[in-house]
């Protein structure tokens, strides 16, 4: 069952029937109840099957109904649909929907913590509509980062179109999802972390920082761009942090310069794009992807690859029960960026009591002299790295496969040298 609005903003529901139920051949009632509160006080109920009408015939079958009643702009409605078959057996589905408002831009009003659905925390809006808080059609600008950043908390599931500005964010924005879901609906770049400071050769956060915790951040048709796409010295760096069982489902378009991903506390980053460290950057230094802790994972899906590279000292670390899945893992690789082809130096992929499952190959080094000292290191007693394809150890300077002293894990892959 789905609920949606048409071009005129009118609400309708679509019900897909796949089974009439035991010893039944038709549906005799489809009742929809909605209200502007979770207790359904003052609710309105409509039975869409009137005058003996039924749903019958060959399955599956989808039917759509127009909801009766007015839906105020920027107001959330709770709804439930009860479906009854000819034998009196019933099933109820619950959901919520938002009244349609005009597309607006909202800005977080101050460098202070607060709840997403608190109108006082936002400025913006347009026309005669009251300033409330962002909904599915709205764009958000995040400003006022302050020295220590701030936290925005969800009290329920929320949605918006996109984040239009997240630049020079210092210690940054924390989205505490409170166990709920935040959905972004834009079909292109929906989050653009740009122009942060570059990182040093350490494991700290750098540049503009976005922290996501305790819930799901879903961007099924959207892209994230981590740091500026510009090459040369103009490229900035940014950091995404996932913690406390956060889930980020997106297409992570690229990580410029020394941009970093930290995934811990049972969190999962799921991306549907090839993921390349120091992508679109001529002088990327010290990029980091750190995945740590039981249940934490980096999932590069849809047959896409993970490339660990950078101008100097790039690091992929999967440790302490964390896992990586991808098509192929490339360690050290010269990259044709917007600023031209650049070398990759001192590149390390390190697995310490972590797991990797690869549908294709592991490539260490490349076929030219622009890849210096690419390394795959296995450490700890519970490390498992499996590649369905070959492990290719190329002729680049210093390319190596290493096992740390006392390592008890294993690598399962055909070896080509």
Number of strands: 40
Could you give the distance between the termini? 54 Å
Question: What fraction of residues sit in β-strands?
Answer: over 45%
Helix tally equals 0
Query: Which regions contain 5 or more consecutive residues with pLDDT less than 50?
Result: 1-9, 127-131, 229-234
What would the principal axes of the Cα set say about the shape? globular
Mean pLDDT: 80
Radius of gyration: 25 Å
Q: What's the layout of helices and strands?
A:
Blueprint: E1 2-5, E2 11-17, E3 26-35, E4 44-47, E5 55-56, E6 61-66, E7 76-85, E8 90-98, E9 105-108, E10 114-115, E11 122-124, E12 139-141, E13 150-153, E14 158-160, E15 162-167, E16 173-176, E17 181-184, E18 189-194, E19 208-226, E20 238-255, E21 260-263, E22 268-271, E23 275-276, E24 288-292, E25 297-300, E26 306-308, E27 314-319, E28 323-326, E29 329-331, E30 335-337, E31 340-342, E32 344-352, E33 355-358, E34 362-364, E35 371-379, E36 384-387, E37 391-393, E38 400-403, E39 410-412, E40 415-416
Parallel strand pairs: 9-12, 10-13, 12-15, 13-16, 14-17, 15-18, 16-19, 17-19, 18-19, 19-20, 20-21, 20-22, 21-24, 22-25, 23-26, 24-27, 25-28, 26-29, 27-32, 28-33, 29-34, 32-35, 33-36, 34-37, 35-38, 36-39, 37-40
Antiparallel strand pairs: 1-2, 2-6, 3-4, 3-5, 3-7, 7-8, 9-11, 30-31
């Amino acid at each position: 069952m789905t609920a949606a609005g048409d071009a005129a903003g009118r609400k309708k529901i679509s019900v897909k029937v796949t089974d009439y139920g035991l010893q039944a051949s038709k549906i005799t009632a489809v009742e929809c109840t909605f209200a502007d509160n979770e207790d359904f006080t003052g609710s309105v109920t409509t039975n869409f099957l009137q005058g003996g009408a039924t749903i019958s015939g060959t399955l599956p079958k989808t039917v759509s109904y127009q909801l009766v009643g007015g839906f105020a702009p920027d107001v959330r409605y709770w709804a439930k649909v009860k479906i009854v078959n000819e034998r009196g057996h019933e099933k109820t589905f619950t959901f919520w929907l938002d009244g349609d408002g005009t597309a607006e831009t909202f800005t977080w009003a101050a460098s202070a913590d607060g709840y997403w659905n608190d109108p006082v925390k936002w400025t913006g809006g347009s026309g005669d509509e009251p300033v409330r808080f962002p909904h599915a059609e709205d764009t958000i600008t995040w400003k006022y980062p302050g020295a220590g950043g701030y936290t925005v908390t969800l009290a329920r599931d929320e949605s918006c179109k996109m984040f239009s500005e997240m630049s020079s964010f210092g210690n940054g924005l924390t989205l505490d999802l409170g166990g709920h879901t935040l959905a972004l609906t834009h079909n292109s770049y929906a989050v653009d972390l740009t122009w942060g400071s570059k990182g040093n050769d350490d494991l700290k956060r750098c540049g503009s920082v976005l922290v996501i915790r305790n819930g799901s951040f879903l961007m099924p048709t959207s892209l994230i761009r981590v740091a500026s796409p510009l090459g040369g010295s103009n490229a900035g760096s940014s950091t995404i942090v996932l913690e406390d069982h956060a889930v980020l489902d997106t297409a992570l378009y690229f990580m410029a310069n020394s941009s970093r991903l930290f995934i811990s506390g049972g969190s999962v980053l799921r991306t549907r794009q090839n993921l390349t460290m120091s992508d679109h950057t001529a002088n990327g230094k010290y990029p980091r992807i750190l995945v740590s802790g039981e249940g934490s994972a980096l999932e590069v899906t849809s047959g896409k690859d993970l490339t660990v590279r950078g101008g100097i000292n790039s690091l992929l670390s999967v440790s302490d029960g964390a896992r990586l899945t991808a098509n192929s893992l490339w360690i050290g690789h010269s990259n044709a960026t917007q600023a031209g082809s650049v070398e990759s130096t001192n590149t390390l992929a390190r697995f310490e009591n972590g797991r990797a499952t690869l549908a294709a190959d592991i490539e260490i080094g490349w076929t030219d002299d622009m890849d210096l000292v690419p390394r795959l290191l296995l450490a700890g007693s519970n490390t498992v790295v499996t590649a369905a394809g070959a492990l290719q150890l190329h002729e680049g300077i210093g390319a190596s496969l290493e096992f740390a002293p006392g390592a008890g894990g294993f690598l399962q892959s055909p070896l080509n040298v």
